[in-house]
Amino acid sequence: VSNLDQDLTCLVLEILRQQARQQSRTVVCVLHDSNLVGRFADFVIKLNPDQPERCAIRALQRDDDNAETGR
What we know:
Order of helices and strands: HHEEH
Radius of gyration: 14 Å
Oligomer: single chain
């Protein structure tokens, strides 16, 4: 999505997210825009270029997930 404009980027990421959920699939995307990460990611793997073996993984709490599950 790196060469797409902002609107098309969001559209493509939303389609990927919907398809992944409907088909119980995992999508791995490399995103450098923290706003896109916050909007579309369920989990974040943050790499340190100096020590890539010491990555940090965290789950994101999403408001739309709460609406879907009723939490």
